[in-house]
Amino acid sequence: MSAAMDTESTYSGYSHYSGHSKKAHRQGRDRHKSPRSKDGSRSEKSVTIQTPPAEPLLGNDASRAEEGQDDNWGETTTAITGTSEHSISQEDIARISKDLEDSVGLDCKRYLGLTVAAVLGLLVFLTPIAFILLPQILWRDDLEPCGTVCEGLFISVAFKLLILLIGTWALFFRQPKADLPRVFVFRALLLVLIFLFVFSYWLFYGVRILDSKDTNYQGIVQYAVSLVDALLFIHYLAIVLLELRQLQPMFTVKVVRSTDGESRYYSLGHLSIQRAALVVLENYYRDFTVYNPALLTASKSRAAKHMAGLKVYNVDGPGNNASGQSRAMIAAAARRRDSSHNELYYEEADHERRVRKRRARLVVAVEEAFTHIKRLQAEEQQKAPGEMMDPREAAQAIFPSMARALQKYLRTTRQQQYHSMESILQHLSFCITNNMTPKAFLERYLNPGPTLQYDRDRWFSKQWTLVSEEAVTSGLQDGIVFVLKCLDFSLVVNVKKIPFIKLSEEFIDPKSHKFVLRLQSETSV
């Protein structure tokens, strides 16, 4: 408990220091910018929040501001400029209103499709029952006795409807994984087919049975049984079209992330473009490493440095010796281009050296912290049950010993925006609870994992945009290229058809493997 109190005092010192530094920084900025405010040149009242170079992916502004406060343990800075912290710009108002309209439209479309499917399903299940009950209600005295045959048909209808109900629930009434831009063609065709089928049955029932008040009750019950049988066959057709048709791989798609070029290959069956895009996104969150824009800043800064590295001074006045200056600039640019690969080589080598050094320090610090945990566990076993420390307190006790090494390593590898202090403490307490080793604890930080491994608010995109030259409801074809866009990057998908493979058989005669070993009659013995 004393170690936990020391930890809390340490973090309070960190927060006090960061708050003091931010306050001094803000006062200095206000002092330098006061002349501009007197001139009245700053008329726009908006808040600009500048996050670290690798800002959280695809989050809203409020969540980004809160995440910046949570990342103070890593000594990241957030600079806030503007005349009022409560003002908002016209662009923000337009974006918020657009998001609200889109969300309302998507919800209405989703619930409308679900409502139509539910009403049609209820009509399908009530129709056979109505076919059997209406003659009993309207002209019961005129019906011919049916006896045992009708009772057997009643049992058959009941069990078939139960099977149809279970199959319909398993196939259609599932929670949707995404909201697609267009309707699913096969599902819409099945709904239309079921509606026309039930409507034709009702039309025939009304004309031939209700109007004439048919007295052959056994024929009426068999008519209802035929309807249930036909509905079961339509359900089998739905299973083939919606589930089995897409299982056989027919296409290979290459998915490339536009920013860093990371790519994956997937095999798909007969799918529409929008459903193929949904499969690609599901696999993206599982297979691709999390998008880290901070890793791209080094190459951009290096290119900017090379572009702005040359300066030419004209000492003879304007218009003189222009050809000589151009030749000098071309020669200097060529020499700088020839030496740029050396700068890149030594820069990457120095970065790898620093990463290995800080990784070694982190591994040693974590191993020492877990060794301390084992000593604490041995001491806690000798105490009373009421004085034992829970995993959360144990994690808070050993975290300061590894915090600095972990902070430096995450900074060097530019991962600090994806790991807050709270998330690290939760992961540490989880490892302590399940008696995991230091290597298991470090696996999340030493090896960048898939996107789903990190906090959902830091990577999840609520909306993707599908860009395709072909209609999104059309099927995949060889050579089709479509793009999935989100806020910070895009996924370029190239479709290739799996080639037709022709196998031939070659027969080998078993007798061709036989041979005869002939030994000489005379030996050296």
Briefly, what is this?
The protein is of the alpha+beta class and 525 residues long.
Annotation keywords:
alpha+beta, Tumour Suppressor Smad4, 5-stranded antiparallel sheet, 12 helices, disordered N terminus
Give your account of this protein's structure.
There is one protein chain. The protein is an alpha+beta fold and 525 residues long. The protein has twelve helices and seven strands. The protein has helices at 2-39, 61-70, 90-138, 148-171, 185-210, 217-244, 273-287, 297-307, 322-380, 391-412, 421-433, 438-446; strands at residues 48-50, 79-81, 251-257, 263-268, 465-468, 481-485, 490-497. It has a five-stranded antiparallel beta sheet, with helices on one face. It has a two-stranded antiparallel sheet with strand order 1-2. A hairpin with a 4-residue loop joins β6 and β7. α3 (90-138) runs antiparallel to α6 (217-244), α4 (148-171) runs parallel beside α6 (217-244) and α9 packs antiparallel against α10 (391-412). The protein is extended. Residues 1-72, 74-94 and 100-104 have low confidence and may be disordered.
Mean pLDDT: 74
| End-to-end CA span | 90 Å
Give me the Rg, rounded: 36 Å
Given the C-alpha coordinates, what overall shape results? extended
Number of strand elements: 7
Main sheet characteristics: 5 strands, antiparallel
Percent strand equals 5-15%
Low-confidence stretches: 1-72, 74-94, 100-104
Helicity level, as a percent range?
Answer: 55-70%
Look at the helices and sheets and give the structural class.
alpha+beta
State the order of secondary-structure elements, H for helix, E for strand.
HEHEHHHHEEHHHHHHEEE
Side-by-side strand order of the widest sheet? 4-3-7-6-5
Number of helices: 12
